[in-house]
TrEMBL record:
Entry annotated with the keyword Isomerase: no
Name assigned to this protein: Outer membrane lipoprotein carrier protein LolA
Signal sequence, start to end: 1-25
Keywords carried by this UniProt record: Lipoprotein, Signal
CDD domains, sorted: LolA
SUPFAM superfamilies (alphabetical): Prokaryotic lipoproteins and lipoprotein localization factors
Domain of life: Bacteria
Keyword presence, Lipid metabolism: no
Length: 219
């Protein structure tokens, strides 16, 4: 094989590599742009109420559990009911209320108990990830476009996250989180209500409602 042929193959290989990197960059830009639309849509609402299904699977451990939950979000305030526990945030404090244990834990916003809050569930993807365009599926008549998120930090226990976006509404339909331990968590939105007429004290903790509960201040 002469020198010209070798040089030509090298040039072709470099062109193909450059083309591949260009496509990846375009896909990443397109994926981030779609998620930016989702974030902008969420921020345009005064408040949001979501009914959701939460499914946890681990084939190796033979675990397959599905539970329902409900969360109301307004700015940095939220009210979550899930697995028999109520979690409330008034913007300054987080109250975790367990009726079964008759116990209430109170922590400041920004502390350890605030690492992954419901208030971030629709905007968590804004930073800390590499983005790529994934598959499109039609689910229950809805066109769902998936964006794949890969955590930048090697310490992150999540291997990857798929965010399914309803392209007709620019709202999150579901998220599929695949952990490094083999666990897959799927959160699916059943209903998405916005701009509800909430009472002024909707996110206010009223101690007198829980007269016999043990109060655990974590700060």
């Amino acid at each position: 094989m002469n020198k010209k042929m070798i040089n030509m193959k090298k040039i072709i290989a470099l062109v193909l590599l450059f083309a591949g990197l260009t496509v990846q960059a375009q896909d990443a830009t397109k994926a981030k742009a779609l998620l930016d639309k989702v974030s902008a849509k969420v921020k345009s609402y005064k408040n949001v109420e979501i009914d959701f299904n939460y499914n946890l699977q681990n084939t190796k451990e033979k675990v397959n559990q599905t539970n329902k939950g409900k969360v109301t979000l307004q700015g940095n305030q939220y009210l979550l009911n899930f697995l028999g526990v109520t979690k409330m945030c008034d913007g300054k404090k987080i109250y975790t209320i367990s009726k079964e244990d008759e116990e209430i834990s109170i922590a400041s916003v920004g502390g350890e108990d605030d690492a992954d809050t419901p208030a971030k569930m629709l905007t968590f993807f804004n930073k800390g990830f590499k983005y790529s365009w994934d598959i499109t599926q039609t689910i229950k008549g809805k066109k769902i476009q998936y964006v794949k998120l890969t955590p930048i930090s090697s310490k992150d226990e999540r291997k990857q996250i798929l965010v399914g976006v309803d392209v007709a509404t620019n709202q999150v339909y579901n998220t599929i989180t695949i952990g490094k331990n083999g666990t897959t968590v799927t959160l699916t939105v059943n209903s998405f209500k916005t701009n509800l007429p909430l009472a002024k004290n909707h996110f206010t903790f009223v101690k007198t409602k829980y007269p016999n509960y043990y109060i655990n201040n974590l700060d």
